[in-house]
Write a structure and sequence with these properties.
- Helix content is 39%, strand content 19%.
- The chain is α/β, with parallel strands linked by helices and 193 residues long.
- It has a five-stranded mixed β-sheet with strand order 5-4-3-6-7. A two-stranded antiparallel ribbon has the order 1-2.
- The longest helix has 31 residues.
- 31% of the residues are buried.
Length: 193
């Protein structure tokens, strides 16, 4: 009987050790992954962090002036991709913080793409002028890019690192000029691609 208890105890210790080192390995890989940059797990922004590097789906859209832009052109830069509409109150609430973030980090390589959901170029231009927004607006006239990024309820934001990978995803209005957001973007901007 004592032999069975001893064998059981040894087996339990081995299983616990394997589990510990497996988890430790996963955590260390996550810490080195460009996607896992949220400081100390506080995650006040409630960002969804991918478990493995995932390339952001490619797309091409026009801005309100008719100029075409593709996501592929922005490799080597950090991109905040924001899906929004002029009738979306939470979208409007987060825009001033996005503008402050852009003003502070644009010189370091941050690009903000505000992908408008199915509205006219005139309406988007008027909105950007009224709210003094200087980052880039894009028009998703048929809603296909929003669908590609599963932006079912607005706003949805996707943070893309220099390698074109999704580093984080956020649903709902966020304070993009908070200390946590600034730290996240500064870390991503400092990383080599």
């Amino acid at each position: 009987m004592t032999r069975w208890i001893g064998a059981f105890f040894v087996a339990a210790v081995i299983v616990a050790a394997v589990a510990f080192y497996s988890l430790k390995g996963d955590f260390s890989r996550q810490e080195q992954s460009p996607a896992a940059v949220v400081q100390g797990g506080t995650n006040k922004l409630k960002l969804e962090i991918p478990k493995a590097p995932t390339l952001a789906p490619e797309f091409e859209l026009k801005d309100p002036a008719g100029k075409q832009l593709s996501l592929r052109e922005l490799r080597g830069k950090v991109v905040l991709l924001n899906f929004w509409a002029t009738w979306c109150v939470p979208c409007i609430e987060e825009m001033p913080a996005m503008e402050k973030l852009y003003q502070e980090l644009e010189k370091d390589g941050l690009v903000i793409l505000a992908v408008n959901f199915q509205e006219s170029p005139e309406r988007v231009k008027e909105f950007f002028t009224k709210h003094n927004l200087t980052f880039t607006a894009l028009l998703d006239r048929d809603g296909k890019v929003s669908e590609l990024y599963q932006a079912w309820a607005l706003p949805v934001s996707v943070v893309i690192n220099k390698d074109g990978e999704i580093a984080a995803r956020a649903m709902g209005s966020k304070d993009w000029y908070s200390d946590e957001a600034l730290q996240l973007f500064r870390k991503l901007l400092a990383q080599e691609s």
